[in-house]
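TODO from last week: model Aminotransferase class I/classII large domain-containing protein.
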Amino acid sequence: MDLDLEDRTIKRSDTTTIKLAVGEPDATMIPYDLLSKATHELFNDKISTQQSTHWVYAEDEGNPDLRHHIVNFLHHTCRIATLSYENIFITNGVSAILDQLCTMFLRAGDTVLVECPSYLYALSIFRDHHLHIISYETDDDGMIIDSKFITDVLERAKPKMIYVVPTFQNPSGFTMSHHRRELLVQLSLKYHFLIVADEVYHFLDYSKKEPNGNGHHYNEKLVEHPKSFAAYHAAGTVIALQSFSKLLTPSLRLGFACASHEHVNAMARYGLIHSGGGASAFTSGIVDRILVQGSLKRFIDEKLCVEYSKRMNVMYDELMRTFGEQYITCRRPTGGYFLWVKFNDTAIDCDQLLVIAQKHGVSFKPGRLFAHDPESKARLANCLRLCIAIADCDQLREGCLRLKQAFEEYKNVVLY
């Protein structure tokens, strides 16, 4: 059985394994109180009930109030002053809109360029559309954009779409530099390709928070953070994707795309949307209440970033204490969900290690899953991804211990 698919079907019933493979929040990170309050308010909103605002098909572009409030949210959090509600399209989550964009803008056999490593489920969507997937190498500043990139990729392969996870990337945790973002947009205008930026981790930026001395409250630091690709909407070659799954709860299946007015109109005219209506009006009403009251921003700043920062530090420190630089290379991301671990011994096969790790009660995603072609899979065979969002600090420490025990068994059984 495909290990990737197997993981999603068995994880709910298995309560003993520490599931560091799973890229979602644990129950303590879901704001049940905010969701319950907003839902109660929605049911008791007599005006919206009389007007059937949240009880009928949504407008094709999505709930207009939510679109306006997303613009205000982005003005304050990303300092994007050029957006209007006409640049916002409400989606049923990133996976749904990514599939839609493939249908709208690509045809079987067209070339899509991805990072190496890249988000594994995006690769699945591209395969479903029978696209020609090529990948290009990355470093700590994201996708490498050099003369070879221009000649070998843009001029010879001629991709119609470039898909990136630019901020706290899944799986590797890197953040694309401001310079490379600017350069990629400039090249998209010259070589006429579409940039799809999957920015679901953009707001989970721990580096902007620091203790103010009392150990409880956090203040904004003046940290230069590469701007969201949403800021490039006017270029007409960029579509930036966001999701409330990583900020509130995955079950909402709600997100938004930032793009040019022309692209938003095109997405709204898509047959599936035009037939079934825009993204859930009911769910949009719940999220809109959380957003307009300022509750989402506070929850991100005071809960998500604070707790995830602790977890990231615990996981990184425990990995380096348990394994050390002798065995692994690992960067400490300043945001997002994931740690990317590379074993220094290229003979180590993380697919095989996973089988042993599961016997020890811990899981992870092996590196091969995040590549498409055989050569890239081989380069990532000694890598693995760990998620810090799914487990608390004590579980993360125990997970590292179990992973080290599995590694010791792997060395004895497989390597020697």
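Done. Residues 295-322 form the longest helix (28 residues).
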